[in-house]
Amino acid sequence: MTAFGLTDDQEAMTAVVDPMGGANQTRVRAYNERLVLSLVRRHGSLSKAEIARRTGLSAQTVSVIMRSLEKDGLLARGEPQRGRVGQPSIPMSLNSDGVFSLGLKIGRRSADLVLMDFTGQVRMQLHEAYRYPTPSGVLAFSEGAAAEIQSTMRPEDRRKIAGIGVALPFELWNWVEAMGAPPEDMDAWRDADIAAMLGEKLNFPVFLQNDATAACAAELAFGHGPRFADFAYFFLGSFIGGGVVLNHALYPGRTGNAGAFGSMPFAIQNGRQSQLIEHASVVLLEKMLLDAGQDPSSIWLAPEQWADFGEIKTTWIAETAKALAFAIATVSSVIDFEAVIVDGGFAASVRSALVQATQAELLKLDLQGIAPPVVEEGLVGSAARAIGAASLPLFSRYHIDQSVLFKEMG
Question: Which domain holds residue 207?
Answer without folding.
Answer: 100-214
